[in-house]
Each structure stands twice: as C-alpha cells, then as structure tokens.
C-alpha cells in the first residue's frame, strides 16, 4: 500500500476528485493548508491562468504572513499561499496511474501547480469492522 499526498491549487480540487472517482478511487481526505515553494508566496502564481497579466499588480491581495514573520523583524515577510492537501491510500499497482492522472489535471506549467509525495504504508485498519490492510482501504 502507498499513500499519495498531493498539494494542489484550490480551484483544481473538483476536477481532481472527479478524475479519481472515475478511476475507481473516490475515498480521500482533503485539508486546507498554507505553504510556499519556489514562488516564495507570490499570490499571482495561485491565480487563474486566464486572468490578465496586469491583474496581479492591480489587485489588492491579502496573503497570510507566517507566524515567524509576525514575531520577528524581517526585511520582507514570508508569505504562505493557500492550497488544498489531498491524501489517498491505494494499492501499490495503481500508484503510477493515479499520480499521472493528478498531474494531468493540475499541471498548468506555472509556479504553484503543487507537489505530489508517495509514501509507503505499513498497515491499515478499518475501525468499524477491524478489516486489515487491503480490505481496510477498499
């Protein structure tokens, strides 16, 4: 078993959920998260690709300063960008297919598209029935 963790743009969640369901894997956990990567908190990277280029300079965006930035004097506050974190546990043999599907839906070619992590899972237990491992994630 593997755990797929995907950090994606908020507006891509509905389409990602639809694709996973079409592939037979509708069960997942979604969390609202904030973070930053190479774009260093650039909120324009998060915006819809169809927005005009001039929009980012004209818009009054209110990014969330990091807790560290609020408690310390920094020349420029480190900013976090809102994202969604999707987690799904699946059998080993479908990981490649699901990762490719998540990439296909979420890839815009711009900073802020997100990241996917794949981790091994040693075991799983369904609390209600005490089913174990593969039975517990089905």
Specify Rg, calculated over alpha carbons: 18 Å
User: What is the CATH C-level name?
Assistant: Alpha Beta
Order of helices and strands: EHEHEHEHEH
**Structural class determined from secondary elements:** alpha+beta
Which fold name corresponds to the CATH topology? Answer: Alpha-Beta Plaits
| Main beta-sheet strand count, sense and barrel state | 5 strands, antiparallel
SS summary, helix count: 5
Measured distance between first and last alpha carbons: 11 Å
The proportion of residues forming helix, as a percent range, comes to 25-40%
Let me know the average pLDDT. 83
Q: What form results from the Cα inertia axes? A: globular
List unreliable stretches of 5+ residues: 45-52, 54-61
CATH architecture: 2-Layer Sandwich
Strand runs, count? 5
Q: How many independent structural domains?
A: 1
Beta strand %: 15-25%
């Amino acid at each position: 078993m593997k755990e797929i963790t995907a950090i994606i743009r908020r507006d891509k969640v509905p389409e990602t959920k639809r694709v996973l369901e079409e592939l037979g894997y509708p069960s997942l956990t979604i969390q609202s998260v904030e973070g930053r990567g190479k774009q260093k908190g650039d909120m324009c990277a998060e915006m819809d690709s169809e927005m005009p280029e001039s929009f980012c300079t004209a818009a009054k965006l209110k990014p969330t300063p990091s807790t560290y930035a609020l408690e310390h004097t920094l020349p420029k506050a480190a900013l976090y960008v809102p994202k969604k974190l999707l987690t799904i546990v699946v059998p080993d043999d479908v990981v490649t297919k699901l990762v490719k599907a998540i990439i296909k839906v979420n890839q815009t070619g711009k900073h802020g598209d997100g990241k996917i992590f794949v981790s091994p899972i040693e075991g799983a237990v369904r609390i209600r029935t005490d089913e174990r491992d593969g039975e517990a994630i089905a």
